[in-house]
Specification:
CATH superfamily of the largest domain: Periplasmic binding protein-like II
Helix content: 40-55%
Distance between the termini: 51 Å
CATH class of the largest domain: Alpha Beta
CATH architecture of the largest domain: 3-Layer(aba) Sandwich
Shape: rod-shaped
Strand content: 15-25%
Length: about 290
């Protein structure tokens, strides 16, 4: 059924007569009368009782009038919602983030975004980098924040953030030999129990091997949080990104690594895939703030 016919029917009722409605709609009265007859034929019942002096809704006509008004309002709301989504003023953003990146986004990007577009909602998942990339490929995430090294592909649009240095975090009472301020060398770490995640193992071993040192790993795992927890228990020296250990949140001492051993964070989306205006606006703020 044509939405225009519903609009015209409502106008006939609201105007009180075909003559008055035809003037408001700029439609010839015979044509408008034919539209009404066509509606009644389609419904299989009389909708408006009419004579030369007045018109009156039948019971079926009253039901049709009420439903027609509801449909018209829904159609108007639908048009507005679609236009709002296109403008980026409403919608939902599906983000998949590594843990440290999530905090940075909450503190910088998201408040700025919501100040401009308060009706946009967020769905946030905290995952490991390779899992985040899989979510992007499957369409389960719009934007991912990952940390290198990870399995980036040519089908991904990648915006790299500034380098982030790796540090060693440890309990100073358990490893007093590390207390100091200068950057640590591989030889200073040679015989210490190290805690590291798989992603950094190859890079860290290369750094040590260049100095002729074979590192001793007490724990190699997938979770930075586990490395940090073991370090807080005094079980080893954690090799972690500097942003992972926020000021005031831990009693661990930290030392930088000599040679600027670093990792990168990256904002990742998929190429050749539709991006809503909300996603584009979010990416713009990421590039401004991160």
């Amino acid at each position: 059924m044509d939405i225009k016919l519903l609009r015209n029917f409502v106008e006939i009722v609201d105007s009180g007569s075909l003559t008055a409605a035809s003037k408001k709609l700029f439609i010839a009265q015979p044509a408008l009368s034919n539209q009404l007859k066509a509606l009644e034929k389609e419904m299989g019942t009389l909708l408006i009782e009419r004579n030369s002096r007045r018109q009156k809704l039948t019971d079926a006509g009253r039901l049709f009038y009420d439903r027609a008004k509801s449909i018209i309002l829904m159609e108007s709301a639908l048009v507005k919602e679609v236009r709002d989504v296109e403008d980026g003023t409403v919608g939902s953003l599906k983000l998949a983030l590594i843990q440290s990146a999530e905090m940075a986004l909450l503190q910088e990007v998201i408040p700025s975004f919501l100040e401009k577009w308060p009706q946009v909602t967020f769905e946030i998942q905290e995952k490991e980098s390779d899992v985040i990339l899989s979510l992007l490929e499957d369409g389960a995430a719009d934007v991912g924040i990952v940390r290198t090294p990870c399995a980036l592909t040519p089908e991904m649009d990648v915006h790299y953030l500034p380098d982030e240095h790796l540090i060693c975090a440890y309990r100073p009472d358990r490893f007093p030999e590390l207390n100091g301020s200068a950057a640590l060398t591989p030889r200073e770490l040679a015989d210490l129990p190290l805690l590291i995640i798989y992603r950094y193992e190859e890079m860290f071993c290369g750094w040590c091997n260049e100095a002729g040192v074979v590192p001793t790993f007490r724990c190699v795992n997938k979770q930075l949080s586990l490395c940090l927890r073991w370090a807080e228990d005094g079980l080893g020296v954690a090799v972690i990104p500097s942003s992972y250990l926020s000021d005031g949140e831990s009693t661990l001492a930290v030392r930088e690594l000599a040679g600027g051993l670093a990792t990168k964070r990256a904002v990742v989306t998929m190429k050749n895939r539709y991006r809503s205006r909300a996603v584009e606006n979010f990416l713009t703020l990421c590039k401004e703030h991160l």
